[in-house]
Amino acid sequence: MTTVVFGDGNLGRAIAAGIAARDGEPPRLLGRPVAGAGHRPIDLEGVDLAFEASRGDAVVANVRAAASAGCRRFVVATTGWDAARSEVDEILWAHGASAVVGANLSIGVAHFLLLVEAAAKIFGPLAGYDPYVVEWHRRDKRDRPSGTAREIADRVLAAHPSKDRVAALDGPPGDRELEVVSVRAGASPGMHVVGFDAPGESVELRLTARDRSAYVAGALAAADWLDREPRTPGIYSFSTVVQDLAVEDLVAAPSREAAAATL
Fold this sequence. Notes:
By secondary structure, the protein is an alpha/beta fold. It is built from nine helices and eleven strands.
C-alpha cells in the first residue's frame, strides 16, 4: 500500500510520523507544488490512501489529482474548504472514491461535541444561562475561528432554543446571537471552552490538546475504517467513524512521543 500525506506543516508531519511509527514505513509527504501549480496525477500513480492536511484552497486540486491517479481512499483533516464540499463529493463519486472528513479528527473532540449538544439542550431552557464559545490556538493558525470552533458553534445553535446565529465581531451580541471568541497567541495546539454564564455561577466544558497525538490517532482510525470494508463513494463525517468503530480501535494510537516530536 502506498500512502501520501498532502501538507508538510505541523499536522501533516505529525500524521506522517504516526504512520511511520505504526507501520514501520513513512508515507510520501508532499508540500505545496512550485508556483501554486497542482500536483500531477502522473506523480501520484500507485497511491491508494491519501491524507489531506494542507490548506483549504488546495483540497479540491489535491483530491482531484489523487483520484485521477487511482486513489480511492481519503482522510481529510484540512479546514476552510466548506464552500467546495459539493465539488469534492462530485470528484469522489466520479472516481468511485470515499473520504472521511472532519474539522477535527480527535476522538475526544468527537465525544466533546456530543456533550456540547447535551449541555445546550439542558441549559437552553434555563433563563439567564448565556452560552459562549472560546477557542485558543497558536499565533500562526490561519483560520479564525477554527474549524473545530465553527463545528462547536453549529452544535450549540442546533440544540439551543434561543440562539440561531453567531455574533458579529463588533458590538455586543444580540439576544439570539452566540458569542464566539478566538485567541491567537503563543504555541497552544488547541483549547476549546463552551460555557453557560448566569448571574450567580458559570458552567464550562473544556477540551485542551496537549499535542497532536489525538488528531493522529483519529486520522489513522479513519483510514482503517475506510479499509475495513468497501464503502459507497462520497463523503463520510468523522463522527460516523467514531460511532461505528469499537473503543479499542479508536485508541490504537501511535506513541505520543512520535506525534509530539513534530510540534
